[in-house]
Amino acid sequence: MGCFFTVKRRQRWSLVTGIATLALCASTSLFADFNRLGQLQNKGFSISAEARLLDADAGANALLGSITPDRQLSPASVTKAYLSAAALNRFGPQHRFTSQLVSSADIENGVLRGDLVFEGGGDPGLTTENLWRLVQRLHLAGVREVEGALVVSQWRFGSVDCITTDRCDALTRVANAYSAPLSSAGVNFGSWCVNVAPAATAGESAQVGLCDSQTSLITIDNQVVTRPANSGTEISAERITDARGDVMRLTGQISTNATARDVYRGAGDAAETTAQVLMGMLNQAGIQVREPWRVSTSQPPSSAQRLAAVDSQPLQELLLRIMNYSNNYMADVLALDLVDTPQAQLRQAGLAIETYAQNLPGHGPLTLYSGSGLTTENRTSALGINVMLEDMFHQSSLFPSFVASFQSPANGVMRFIRRGSSTFQNNVMIKTGTLNQPFAVRASAGYFRTAQGRWGVFSVMVNGNSSTPYLSWSEVLDPLSLDLEAMILAN
Q1: 282-317 burial, b for 16+ CB within 10 Å, e for fewer?
Q2: What is the largest CA-CA distance in the chain?
Q3: Which Gene3D superfamilies does this entry report, sorted A to Z (predicted)?
Q4: pTM above 0.90, yes or no
């Protein structure tokens, strides 16, 4: 750690200015640790934190600050940094996941004489746009009618057992999108999207429909009322699964001059949702399917021929969404892609990431029950996270894709990280993790550049317990930003 000054030629440096600057330097060096963040321990919170420089010249001075760095705590969504590193090492930045339509049957005069099988490729970012391209390519292949059924094959994985209360409850009722069910054949992040727009006249029901289909694929219970201009818009949505299948129940109000709103809620079954969406597209394309759709966990026979295929975005682009938006569905699907055996479950996906980390010298223990971090049972240390971050830093071919998936506080999509000084805002790349139940978790990790242009890594996990109060992000990020700023300026 050091403090350096550059004096311009012919510029006089007064004694007072020099003393003041040296005092500031000494103060900065003195508090270039986790002194501020560490005060949360006085409120009963457990902390594992470490920050250090990465350049070889740092030597014994590499460590800038630490609080029980080898303590095992929950990292929440910082788990996604492990996932991203493991996936880049396994697949490479340009890897794409392929979803396809296959069949063992022959095509005669435009009629497919058997079942049409959608083979899910484990694409974490598969959307209706991809499915429409798939259907269009099937049409170009000459298929106009399917004598059998549409079969959605999720033989790679799905349906995946729920391991958290949120996801288990979401099997029948859910008011969010992050608890969406998992499948290698899922579309639109395992969620339904409903568009809500005001009616022309106040007092009438709002106009609602699916975002990606004119066909009524599910029941929409619309109780949203249109109100006069500037009355405010408040919409509550819940997906319920009953004898009718998935039902989207909407309540609230929307102003006549409000813009249309898209509302996302996790589906009851990801593969069944894909079957419904794909059937609607086949009908719109004029391709008749005679038998009802069904879902299968069987792999298509080796005799099946590809009729149409669509590739995902490159992995490095998928990681931007997984990390920037902390998309839990995408993260867990990508983690399941790391498992080679069929019908993988989340613990197997966690073990695959653990295996990657165990090959990093000096990492220490790691326990992962999911790749998304959507469980407090995941455990690692600040020391371990930094070992992983440093290993990625030294991989020249992977590091650009990896670090790009972190957020700059000054420009990131998550507004709550836009705090602190310009030094913190512009010299840090960060991934955060948040959980509130059964106890509070606030975690963050990433890279920073010092005032001298040196690279550093930092990892912080703050965990509560059943007795600690609610922990806001400001209580963590405000002191952390000051601690990191001091480290950046002092080096």
Answers
A1: beeeebebeeebebbbeebeeebeebbbbebbbbbb
A2: 94
A3: D-Ala-D-Ala carboxypeptidase C, peptidase S13 (3.50.80.20), DD-peptidase/beta-lactamase superfamily (3.40.710.10)
A4: yes
